């Protein structure tokens, strides 16, 4: 299937090169994820994420806005099938398993940053809490292993998601701050310095962190209502 663009050039839609065999593959993988216990969800989700990134990078011929890219790629049944598989897997993942998949997402974003933003937008819109929280958890663990590590990929994803899911980001940051102020494990003691370093990468994220901190601080200092007992 082809279409004419404004320059009278013929542009081929991604659906024109689809292999009908993928429907069989998709159904088989869905059955594995839904019916077989174990860590298949992580394997399938990671494979799909890497494949989506590879296909987007290979067949994107020009820079497109996120909305245009979503419409373009979702016209392809194979790409829709891959995203469906990822969504099914994400719904079934534990926090630890989701962390592994988010690492794959970050790696794909780093490799295919110019053509992968629409994937992040799509998945982030479906699972904002899970993706935002796991990105911050993965970043915290990287920080614990190497204080000098950099967070360009993580910040790029969070900045984008922040525009549509700012309140979700604030909820996650608040939970992190609470754990940092009242640490129960060694990793918790690094949360506050991690957030200081992380905030240096983005004014958008820093503003939200400060706002959450001030809300928590003001709530702690606000006078509590006094109950007077009549004698």
TrEMBL record:
Query: Where in this chain does the record put each Integrator complex subunit 5 N-terminal domain?
Result: 7-144
GO process terms (BP): snRNA 3'-end processing
Q: Name one GO cellular component term.
A: integrator complex
**Ranges in coiled-coil conformation:** none
InterPro entries per UniProt: INTS5 (IPR040316), INTS5_N (IPR029445)
**The name this protein goes by in its record:** Integrator complex subunit 5-like
Q: What is the lineage of its organism?
A: Eukaryota, Metazoa, Ecdysozoa, Arthropoda, Hexapoda
Give me the gene this protein comes from.
Answer: LOC119644014
